[in-house]
């Protein structure tokens, strides 16, 4: 099977449902950013040492693919798609609660870069926030399932806590941001 179809050469792509839209369409920008986020989470997974973290990151990647399928679905079309549930959000919350039990309390904003994995978690967090902003903008014209936005919001929180956990796990110090006077 060839990967190239040449159907997108004129700057359009197909939604799930068959209609063609501009590759600059807000929906495409949103699920493209979710896809970018998934790649960053994959990078984090490739660096993870702990079996529990690997499993959770793989779960997150699955949920992001699910989100992408919902975002790619043409408005008004019905397809049998996997769903994102409140349990998925709660799973992220439970993971954050476990990690917060072992990391020191935050006393300052933190500058990314104490180690490679922590810096990658911060990059993923920033991409997650961008995906969330794009989803909010998309919702203004084409309402999406509210759970998608909730999941992205919680995921960005998770990625922040995970970055702190990675630094703690490696026995390194976080770099606090101390504003110059």
Radius of gyration: 18 Å
CATH architecture: Up-down Bundle
Which residue ranges are poorly predicted, with pLDDT under 50 across at least 5 consecutive positions? none
Largest sheet: 2 strands, antiparallel
Domain count: the total is 1
The name of the CATH topology is: Hypothetical Protein Ta1238, Chain: A
Shape: elongated
Measured as a percent range, the helix fraction is 55-70%
Structure characterization notes:
It is a single chain. The protein has 181 residues and is mainly α. The protein has one domain: Hypothetical Protein Ta1238, Chain: A (Up-down Bundle), CATH 1.20.1200. Helix content is 60%, strand content 7%. The protein starts with 11 loop residues before the first strand and ends with a strand. The model has no long low-confidence stretch (mean pLDDT 94).
Short description:
The chain has helices at residues 26-47, 51-72, 86-100, 116-141, 146-169; strands at residues 12-14, 20-22, 109-111, 175-177. Helix 1 packs antiparallel against helix 2 (51-72).
Task: Record keyword descriptors for this entry.
two-stranded antiparallel ribbon; elongated; 7% strand; two-stranded antiparallel sheet; Hypothetical Protein Ta1238, Chain: A; 181 residues; mainly alpha
């Amino acid at each position: 099977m060839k990967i190239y179809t040449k159907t997108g050469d004129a700057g359009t792509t197909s939604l799930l449902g068959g209609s063609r839209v501009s590759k600059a369409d807000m929906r495409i920008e949103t699920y493209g950013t979710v896809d970018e986020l998934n790649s960053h989470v994959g990078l984090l997974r490739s660096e993870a040492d702990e079996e529990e973290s690997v499993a959770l990151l793989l779960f997150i990647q699955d949920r992001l693919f699910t989100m992408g399928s919902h975002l790619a679905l043409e408005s008004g079309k019905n397809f049998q798609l996997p769903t994102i549930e409140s349990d998925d959000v709660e799973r992220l919350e439970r993971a954050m609660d476990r990690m917060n039990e072992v990391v020191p309390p935050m006393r300052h904003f933190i500058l990314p870069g104490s180690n490679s994995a922590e810096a990658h978690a911060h990059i993923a967090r920033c991409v997650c926030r961008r995906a969330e902003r794009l989803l909010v903008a998309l919702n203004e014209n084409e309402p999406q399932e509210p759970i998608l936005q909730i999941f992205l919001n919680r995921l960005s929180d998770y990625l922040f806590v995970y970055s702190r956990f990675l630094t703690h796990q490696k026995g390194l110090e976080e770099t606090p941001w101390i504003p110059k006077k």
